[in-house]
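discrete fold record:
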Amino acid sequence: MDNICCNKFIELIKKDYPTKEALQTEIINLEAILALPKGTEHFMSDIHGEYEAFKHMVNNCSGVIREKIDLIFPDMPESAKDNFCSLIYYPEEKLKLLKSQNRVNNEWYLQTITNLVNLTSFISSKYTKSKVKKAINPHFRYIIDELLHSKDNVETNIKKYYDNILHAILDVGAADSIVLELTRLIKNLAVDYLHLAGDIYDRGADPDKIVDLLMTHHAVDIEWGNHDVLWIGAACGIPVCVFTALYNNLKYSNLHLIENSYGISIRKLINYTNSLYGNRKNLTDIVKTTLILLLKLEGNIIKRNPEFGLNERLVLNNIDFEKKVYVLNGKEYDLKDANIKGINPLDPYEITPEEQKLINRLCEDFKTSIRLQSHIKFIIDKGCVYKKFNGNLIYHGCIPVTEGGKFKKVDMLGQKLSGKAYFDAIDELIRKNYYGQPSEKERDYMYYLWGGYDSPFTGRIYKTFEIYFLKDKSLKAEPRNPYYEFRNSVEVCDMIMKEFGVDPAHGHIINGHLPVKVKNGEKPIMADGKLIIIDGGFCKAYHEKTGIAGYTLIANSHGLRMKAHSEFSSKEEVVTENKDIISDSTIIETSETRIHVRDTDNGKNIEETVKVLKMALNTY
């Protein structure tokens, strides 16, 4: 830094800290923060619209709340712990139930608030007093701050002061508000940061509610998954993305998401279906019509982008409409449903003027849905293709590699890119599609990101037509990028971490996308602990395949551990029966010494700031 820049920088510092004492205080504060234990990070992925289960995992902090209660209230009866937990998870509903049972009185309030204060104090002990104070609702900041910092004082006057605060809370009718605020604060402080490694949308019914919940979260980032990128493309009005999103949700009967949540009418799609199949009001016909339109749109993209290498996905060419069979390499395969309409056998990928009008209308509806656009903007602004955070590398799908396990150069819009350069270019492309003026090729690439062999979000070729229409299972296998074979290789994982600037000796790759089939003996920990898969089949559609109902990876000041969750029943059962999710914890890595803020990314930034401030201090 030259003298002119240095002097200007010092002038700016002096504006923020006009006196030597003010700057000294800030340096002391920052130095002290470095010695605190690092905050707890949670990693989850592949939520797939399962709002109720996800909300519960946020509320119970993936079981951490119960662990803290067991630790600091060892003598509390188990039934009392169960009630206390469900109050923290769903305070409004639990209060309403307890009041209806005449179980709430002044004595209950005094004991409950005291217990909540003790739990809050314990959980907040790794943070500065200033950070905790800022996390409290301003309406109750003074009261709760006083409760937290006078609760253990045995001096008679302070004890009376604390007791009088509690009784005053009861006298003025503020007890419910204090309970609600303390339960919110506990959940806020128990997890310092949430990483969501992709796939909020599709399969489950309520991805919109998940985004609403994430928008209220105090600290979250999103590493985009293929389903998120698909919905980004749909929000941009890219036809193939719009019809893929429609197909995915109609197939799972999530019509309310499209029509009620996002205000997108499919009436014209229904009318077009009726014109083909008759007025049968059959959801199967609507799904089939949507799929055929999707395959036509895919076909046109594939034909104008041969570099995608997806010519084998021109499947409509292989239908023999006279015999009503599918023909591949001279062999005939039976169709599960041969009643296929809306295709010109002489030009299977022809889109009629009527179909184009329908496509344009639906694309415009996706682009103009206010709620959808607000959700996608949040996902874009909080999201990225990959993230480096505190020595770990997080991404959803795969790093395209060759059959030999080396980075593969992918043809992306005329450039040959691999590894980090490929990921960075994709990140820029996605943002350009949403915020900029993309070319047709750049819009088409959003389709490749959804279902391309070398897409970092997918790494496999979807067999959508075969899965829906064909009986023969041998045709439904989806080719995968070799990454999925090499991710158990220590050498390949080290190569990936080095490429992205992560230290292989201490870092980890945190990966989602393909659920771990625990029931078949699959393990989430690969490459001697260097790669951790956090997709445990959160979505109900996967529970039977995986044998569990999702994972949470927890990184705290003691190390890394993985929690495997049982299936969530319902909020009502939690409130009325105290039925919590059972989570099995597995320790992955324990730090020999406790990890502090100075060991984190933020800690490194603080240390650099302290150096600069100390330089400025000499000029006062």
Notes: Residues 283-304 form the longest helix (22 residues). The mean pLDDT is 94. The chain has 27 helices and 17 strands. The radius of gyration is 28 Å.
